[in-house]
Write a structure and sequence with these properties.
The chain has two domains: 3-103, Orthogonal Bundle (Peroxidase, domain 1), CATH 1.10.520; 106-183, no CATH class. The model has no long low-confidence stretch (mean pLDDT 91). The radius of gyration is 22 Å and the shape is elongated. 20% of the residues are buried. The protein is 63% helix and 15% strand. Helix 1 (3-19) packs antiparallel against helix 2, helix 2 (24-40) runs antiparallel to helix 6 (90-105) and helix 4 packs antiparallel against helix 5. The chain is built from eight helices and four strands. It has a four-stranded mixed sheet.
Length: 184
């Protein structure tokens, strides 16, 4: 089974556990933190992946770290990941879990790329325009890329909206090339 399918399956299981008592957002924060730690901390990653450390020792350390900080069901979920050697799927599980939570709460994530960094007011205006367009709560992630030249490029799911100056110039260039070859 592909790793993305594995991550989605584990995320769905975790989401079902969280839904038992309405703790989906709490579990989202926990799995995001665990996935982020696995992705960014080489020490944590080595500890969880090391064949020199027994699964029992890993589970004991993780359980101790989570005690008083996470619901028991979440802790047991982490123990299951260790038992099944799926800790390397933590980032994928976190992303799939976030997608499930977004779907349940009617949120969409948007990647917004601009040529320059803009102030908070401009970001708010862009977010409001996107929310009107998609009729959902938008969670934007802003990026800067000078190659955009001006305007913006927005990706929401599989949809791409390119209102950049770079795109307009490319369209103009293609139009001029088409017109020039038609007259020869």
């Amino acid at each position: 089974m592909r790793s993305s399918a594995v991550a989605r399956n584990y995320a769905a299981t975790l989401f079902d556990l969280a839904a038992r008592d309405g703790s989906e957002a709490v579990y989202a924060d926990l799995i995001e933190a665990a996935g982020g730690l696995y992705a960014t901390s080489e020490e944590f990653r080595r500890f969880l992946d090391s064949p020199a450390i027994s699964p029992a020792e890993r589970k004991q350390a993780v359980a101790a770290a989570l005690e008083g900080r996470a619901p028991a069901l979440f802790s047991r979920f982490m123990m299951l990941l260790i038992d099944r050697h799926r800790q390397s799927s933590l980032r994928g599980i976190a992303g799939a879990y976030r997608d499930l939570l977004d779907r349940k709460t009617g949120r969409l994530r948007a990647s917004v790329t601009l040529a320059i960094d803009v102030d908070e007011d401009a970001r708010d205006e862009i977010t409001e325009a996107l929310e009107r367009r998609w009729a959902k709560t938008i969670i934007p992630e802003f990026h800067t890329d000078p190659a955009v030249l001006g305007g913006l490029v927005v990706r929401v799911g599989d949809e791409l909206f390119d209102a950049s100056l770079r795109r307009r110039l490319e369209d103009l260039r293609q139009g001029l090339r088409g017109g020039a070859t038609g007259r020869a």
